[in-house]
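Progress against Task 2.4 (sequence-to-structure conversion) is shown through the following example record, which the project officer requested during the mid-term review.
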Amino acid sequence: MNFDIHTEQLADDAYIISLTGEVDLYTAPEFKQQLLDVIGNGAKQVIVDFSETTFIDSTTLGVLVGGVKRLRTNDGQLSLVCSDRNITKIFEITGLDRVFTIYPTRVEAVEQLDVSSRPPA
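Structure tokens generated for the chain above:
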């Protein structure tokens, strides 16, 4: 089974969770636990990086929807990084592309975080 998860803290309330390989019924529980852990640690801005992900299924979508609901109750935001057309198409077909902001690169997602987490001038 090809799966790996790596979490990086960018700021007090900002994290990136990078997923590698297949995120499915068997690996999604580990992803869910990681997502709940960062939210529990005070995350308000979470980026899930699918750049190295080769497959997702409905279990993964369920984890993402659960995560965005939890974050929104704390005025948080969940963004995605994905350039794989097969995976972005899943978000489009399910209408979840209207729920999540999907960035083509990690750099663009992080830049957007920086803009939104700066104090107003």
